Amino acid sequence: MERYGLVLEGGGTRGVYTAGVLDAFLEYSIEVPYVIGVSIGAYNGAAYVAKQKQRNYKVYRSYANDPRFIDYKRIFRGKSIMDSKFIFDHVNSEKYPFDYKKFFKSSQSFVSVSTDCNTGGPAYFEKSKYTLKDVDNIIRSSCSLPFMTDIVEYKNKKYLDGGIADSIPIRKAILDGNQKLIVILTHPKGFEEKQGWYSKVSSVWYKEYPKLTESLKNRYLHYNESLQLLEVLEMTGKAYIIRPKHKEMSMIEQDVEELDKYYDLGWKQGIEEAERIKSFMQDMAV
């Protein structure tokens, strides 16, 4: 049997689309044996591995406007706009508990991607190599958006969002032995990343981490290269891509109705694609 994997990109609150697709996968009992996620893709992927349908959707809806999570006024107090630690300390343990036991008991491999601030390169954390007490810090580091959240320290190293160094980790998935991939993107077809405003301020904002600032400046190039590789994999039958058909949403969306629409879009597309995904997986087994 050919080994196959599921690749999940980030995208801030656009990840609610991915949550919808993955909930459809759970509804149709589609279990991909290898899962790798970046940023909010890692957060969604972990819930998928733990088989917690609609759990992340509820988190998106409940905290989109909660000042304990996001508050632009904090910047005037010298603090980060988003408090990701609140999500992991409060939400994961109290409001919408994450099922750590199911996560670790699952036979699915799970890899989350962070960016090492000192090297500017990707750090890959495999579920089989860490323990329950490490989960929150590892996945939080993958989700820590630059300029918006604090740097995360873990085992004497400092990390930020995995999307800086490896936005669509298809190469890592292939290196790990997956010959065919199911990839969930959060932008419609035809999207091309542009050099962001952050390229001009990163060297000042993160002056202590010159290699990190270099990765931030070149992120758009690496992202577009990954998209080009993905097109080749799709044309050769080695990748099955699911992406929003029409709608585009901002990275930080606080309109709950918009979040509902984007989740519903993912859910409906996941349902529509379910049988084709199953066929794609069966073809791999031939």
Automatic annotation (TrEMBL):
Residues spanned by motif GXSXG: 37-41
Domain PNPLA span(s) in chain numbering: 6-174
Cited Pfam families: DUF6363, Patatin
GO MF entries: hydrolase activity
Classification via PROSITE patterns: PNPLA
Keywords: Hydrolase, Lipid degradation, Lipid metabolism
Positions occupied by motif GXGXXG: 10-15
Active-site positions on this chain: S39 (nucleophile), D161 (proton acceptor)
GO biological process: lipid catabolic process
Positions of short motif DGA/G: 161-163
PANTHER family, per database record: NEUROPATHY TARGET ESTERASE/SWISS CHEESE D.MELANOGASTER, PHOSPHOESTERASE
This protein's name: Patatin family protein
